[in-house]
From TrEMBL:
Residues 35-211 form the Ribosomal RNA adenine methylase transferase N-terminal domain. InterPro entries: KsgA/Erm, rRNA_Ade_diMease-like_C, rRNA_Ade_Mease_Trfase_CS, rRNA_Ade_methylase_Trfase_N, rRNA_adenine_dimethylase, SAM-dependent_MTases_sf. This is Ribosomal RNA small subunit methyltransferase A. The gene is rsmA. Gene3D superfamilies: Ribosomal RNA adenine dimethylase-like, domain 2, Vaccinia Virus protein VP39. The lineage of its organism: Bacteria, Bacillati, Bacillota, Bacilli, Bacillales. It holds the Pfam family RrnaAD. Belongs to the class I-like SAM-binding methyltransferase superfamily. rRNA adenine N(6)-methyltransferase family. RsmA subfamily. GO terms for cellular component: cytosol.
Length: 290
């Protein structure tokens, strides 16, 4: 059978089922087998590995995953796609489709139900761009037993996830993603390989999920709060941002003293701090406001 990820087969399936694209659901289907192969290879699948796909569409990626992974579970929000997926996935006994909004799914329960026989699980998806960040944060924060997350996302967002301190792309998303994983951009992807074409460029990014965070902090919630506060106004110094957020609670002098103990120059901008420096800073602030 011809691959779905080609313009002719995709158009044929869409026509047969009278399917119309919903822009509001981020429906841009990949029709390029070279990019498809890059995605699947980066996920390092085998028959002991499960693949969770988010947003299978008409199954272009799903069928490739079914050939490489032990088990594939695909969560699709659009109920109009469920009968189409039922038909195209008929030859693959190792594929399950769940009709739900991935943001509403209890993923640990889903993992137990779907991947009990698997040694490990990776997420592989061409994500709907309007919900990239909430989906990624859900996958990372729920501390699921994941190996890799290989996703096609908007190029700018991929660059923010993989950024280094001091660069314009470095921000709270970078710190959050790098706290839980090691990101690596696999390739950038032109908008011409989708039907319909999105208005933005895309990139495939692979996140190797960490077993342990790269820095130790006393209070994880406070760590992320300090990160948010430090980037609240990007043009302001670290000191001005911290003062605005913690000044009243911690007292100006206390805050000054805490910052001094970390050895971090208060005139720096949040975007220059490494994860290790944010960790030191949040522990120092934590000792003041507890
Ligand atoms: N996997 C297909 C491909 O590569 O051609 C389709 C990818 S398309 C960019 C995104 C898919 O995600 C669509 O099928 C859309 O209906 C689905 N989707 C959008 N929001 C979703 C959500 N919250 N939960 C699950 N699926 C969603």
């Amino acid at each position: 059978m011809m691959d779905i990820a080609t313009p002719s087969r995709t158009k044929e399936i869409i026509k047969k089922h009278g399917f119309s694209f919903k822009k509001s659901l981020g429906q841009n289907f990949l029709v390029d087998m070279n990019i498809m192969r890059r995605i699947v290879q980066s996920a390092e699948l085998d028959d002991k590995t499960g693949a969770l796909e988010i947003g299978p569409g008409i199954g272009a990626l799903t069928e490739q995953l079914a050939r490489e992974a032990g088990k594939v579970t695909a969560v699709e929000i659009d109920q109009r796609l469920i009968p189409i997926l039922g038909e195209v996935m008929e030859p693959y006994a190792n594929v399950s489709v769940v009709n739900n909004d991935v943001l509403k799914v209890n993923l640990s329960a889903l993992f137990e139900e779907q991947f009990s026989g698997m040694e490990k699980v990776s997420v592989v998806a061409n994500l709907p761009y309007y919900v990239t960040t909430p989906i990624m944060m859900k996958l990372l924060e729920e501390r699921l037993p994941l190996k890799n997350i290989v996703v096609m996302i908007q190029k700018e967002v991929a660059e923010r996830m993989a950024a280094s301190p001091g660069s314009k792309d470095y921000g709270s998303l970078t710190v959050a993603v790098q706290y839980y994983s090691e990101p690596e951009i696999v390739c950038t992807v032109p908008h011409t390989v989708f039907i319909p074409q999105p208005n933005v460029e895309s990139a495939v990014i692979r996140l190797k999920v960490r077993e342990n965070p790269p820095v130790q902090v006393n209070d994880e919630k406070l760590f992320f709060d300090v990160v948010q506060a430090s980037f609240a106004q990007r043009r302001k110094t670290l000191w001005n941002n911290l003062k605005a957020r913690y000044g009243a609670e911690a007292g100006i002098e206390g805050l000054q003293g805490a910052l001094e103990t970390t050895g971090i120059d208060p005139k720096r901008r949040g975007e220059t701090l490494s994860l290790e420096e944010f960790a030191r800073l949040s522990d120092a602030i934590g000792s003041l406001i507890k």
